[in-house]
Structure formats: structure tokens, C-alpha cells
Design goal:
Layout lengths: L7 H22 L5 H4 L1 E9 L3 H19 L2 H4 L2 E8 L5 E8 L5 E2 L2 E2 L1 H20 L5 E10 L1 H29 L10 H28 L7 H30 L8 H33 L5 H30 L3
Antiparallel strand pairs: 1-3, 1-6, 2-3, 4-5
Amino acid sequence: MFSFVKNRFYFYALAFGLFLFSIVSPWIVGLNQGIDMTGGIQIEYNVSGVSLDTTVDSLKETIIPQVKSSLPTDQQSIITDTLVYQISGTNHIVVEAGIDESVAQLDGKADLPRIEAAKTVFNVAVKKELDKIAGATVTEAQYRNVGASFGDYIKKSGYLTLVLAIIAISLYIQYAFRGSIAGMASWPFAVVTTISLAHDVVIAFGLYVVTSHFFPEFKIDTFFITAMLTVLGYSINDTIVVMDRIRSNLQHPKTAKGSFSQLIDTSIWDTMRRSLFTTFTIVIVLVAMFLFGPESIKGFTLALIFGTLVGAYSSICIASPLLVDLTGKK
């Protein structure tokens, strides 16, 4: 039987390397943030009379680049990355444009009139080009304007929520496992939980950042934060299953006679089928959502796929073997 405890340092090395890379990845490849984080505009158009796929392609390849190049010179740099997609099941097309307020400064502060003028000119120009499409009937269904200050608030709130969620889950694990194993404190379970959850979020973040570098449509936004919170719930559920089996084996007269390392390995293999089957079925659903679901949630789904796979790895290869090092019961 393969021993996860004996080979744990290989797993630790892989996890530590990916963890470090994920932390520095924004400085290596850049951080591709959505308008929820940086500020920007989101325009929803109701389009009829023409092919929506063709219209989306025209916006991406022709209309948006043409509009950006036609803006006044002092406004071109304000409009940054753009994203175009169709809302599944409807005839609505969404155009998103990020805003860089740092390039529009007046006396050390954001030049809001100039920034708002750039947003308005961009919106009007895109609508004008859409109206030129033969046979198309285009109406503006919704216009959403997010300021940079509100984006900063959303960003800080999202990151704070993740940190508080990890701390709260860890404290609950310490409470839930208190006094359940004679001679063993419950704090190692809380520490293991904190490390494994932080591992899951940071590495999933790094993988997503690298992906968004090559595919700009995947952005760090509120959908991504929501996906990471969802990953925390799944990952801790998988980790608890293994830890609960460890507790049960420690309390059982037969399995408790061996070494602690052997008991950890036995507990991992006892729950291996359940962990792999659960992960596999979740990934199948997520891949189907990613391939055939609406364009607007592809980033959310991709973040869940990364988080689910990383969470399964940490539950099996990191969390349980780490108990051996924390408790010293070798």
C-alpha cells in the first residue's frame, strides 16, 4: 500500500512550490481584474434581426478596436480591457470595458469629468457602430457604471471575507474535535485546516491568474471570490471526512494499536474512493457547465474546477500527513 505519510515531503515540496508561484504570479504575468475590482462600465444591448454570434464576433474583432482607436487621444488610455459575450438564452449582448483612472489625473486626483466623458463617448460610439449593421435593431437595455473607489471596496471586502471564512472554519474544527481523542489536543486539526484551506485558495488563485494571462476573458472579479468561498466549503467537507475517519480509527481498539503514521495512511485509503468519486462527479458537472454553459459564468466555473482539484489534493496529500508532523506521534 502506498504510504502518503512516508512520501509526504514530496507532496509538501510540490504544494510549497505552487504556493510560492501563486503568490508572485500577479507580478510575473499581471493581474487581469474585472470591472467589479477596478471600476468600469457594462453595457447590455438588446439585438434582433441579425445573427448574435456574428454580432459578437464583429464587436470583438472590428467594432471595439475601431471605436477605441477613434477616441480622442487623451481618452484612449482610459479605456482598458474589453469583454464581449452573449447572455445565454436571450438576444442580449454585453460589452464590458475596464477603466484606468490612474492615467487621468488632475492635481493628484482622478479627473472624473474626463473619465466620465471617455465612458460616454465609448458607449455612444459602440451603439452607433451597432446601428450600422444591416438589418439589426439595437436598443440599450442596461448601463452599469462602477467607480474605481467602489471597486477597491469590493476587492478589500472580498479578500477579507475569504480570510475570515478560513479563520471561522478553523476555529469551528477545533471546537468540533475538542476532547474527542484521549491524549490529543484539538488545535492540530485547526492548524491543518487553516493550512489546507489557504493552500487551496492561493494555488487556485495562481492557476486562474496564469490562465487569465493567456485568455483575457477570465478576470478576477466578484464571481471569482464567490467561487473561492464555494471551494472552501467543498474542500473542508472533504478534509473533515478524512479527519473523522482518523478520529474513528484512533478510538477503535484494533486500528489504534499500530503507529500513528500507519493509522493516517489507513484512514486516507479508507476514504480514498469516496474522495475521488466525489471529486470526479463534481468535475464532470463543472466541465459540462464550462463547455456548454453561458459565457458570463465561464470564469466562475473555471475557478471552481481549479479549486476542486486543488482541494482534493490537499485533503488527501497535505492535511492528513501534516497531522503527523504537528503532533509528533510518529
